[in-house]
Please model this.
Amino acid sequence: MSRQQPLQEPTFLILTALAAGPQHGYGIMTDVAQISSERVRLRAGTLYAALDRLSGDGLVDVDREEIVDGRLRRYYRLTPAGSGRLAEEAQRLRSNASVAASRLRKLGTGLAGGTA
Amino acid sequence: MHTSALERRYRRLLAWYPAAHRLAYGDEMIGVLLTSARDGQRRPSLPDALDLALGGLRIRLRPFLTGRFGPSFADALAVFSLAVPAIWLIVLGVLETTTAYHAVSHGETVRPSMYLLLAVPVLLAILTIVPIVLAWRGKRVAAAVVAFIPAALYTALAFAPPTNNPAAFGSFDSLLAVLQVVALAISPGPRRGAQVMTARTWAVVGATGLAMSVPLVPGLVRLPVGTGAAIFAGVAVAAAAGLMVTLPAAVAARLIGLAAAPAYLAGVSIATAYFEVRNPLVSLSYAIVYLPALAIAVLTGVLGWLGTRRKLTPAP
Model:
């Protein structure tokens, strides 16, 4: 598979939430808020636009449906392609972060004690 | 009680979404929205309402951004790329023939300048046919480029100050021509259009072209004010009904949607052609129908073009 566009953060967080196992829409919303330390708060419109796109791209799939209090609750899970894409993205972020960290360390020694 | 009022309001906001999306996710989204609502909340919060609107727009725009149109919309554009020029050529042909006949039968002397005037419609006909032939042979870019010439011409006319142009002729031609460029550039094209159209669709197209020529034929133009427009409106309704009957319903509905704004503008043009003064209806139609429709058509074309290019180019 050729290299792809970086995932947008909400998409990355949705896939990360589903990496813990199948979840329903509201579960994904609360999980994403928790993973991002409440920084990213998905709303229904954004979430379902993303889920629809991710389903279309074959990265998530419907796991099962339940009726709770007379309402449809649909659980989503990562497909193998979805976990592959998430792993690729995690690797990309990790390598960027490690380069940044190592350069900052050098910068830190170079600038020890000096401020602007 | 509170919940049901809130639910009703949320359901109203789901109108931002295409019907297929509502069918697939509507109940689920309502469930999530109601679960996240505060106790006693009666109205959707502003951020939620905005998010729903943006989510709906994003989904509606997605086909253009990805170049993945629904098959019905792509087919409607394909039929458009063939049927609209066919109607236009019939109108042009009838108009030129009857004008020449009218001139000759009224004993007008044939002057060289009349040949020059005749050259204009012939040139327009060539500029209409050539793109279709090119697109038929799979030369999509060349087709769109040639079709762009009349589109630019009509659009320039539509934007020209309406000094002795009280009916703002140009606005509906401009919109049709721009839509034709879009159809040629981003749809499967006229060859696919011909596959979708049946013999009965061709009959509807032919009859529409002939009927639309009627209010324009010299000698008939002294109809009472508005009669031409009434004839035109009748023809438009009959054409729409004919398309619904002879094409798959989803394709016909989208095709009618594509033709609605230019057809309305054409009707206004004909209705006001009888007035020598500028008519407020024209200026209003120009501002609230022509300009937005033109902007949407151009945006659709550009985004669709980028989308199809992205789809055709292998990922870097």
User: Anything to note?
Assistant: Chain B has a mean pLDDT of 83. Chain B touches chain A through 27 residues (CB under 8 Å). The radius of gyration of chain B is 23 Å. The first helix of chain B runs from residue 2 to 13.
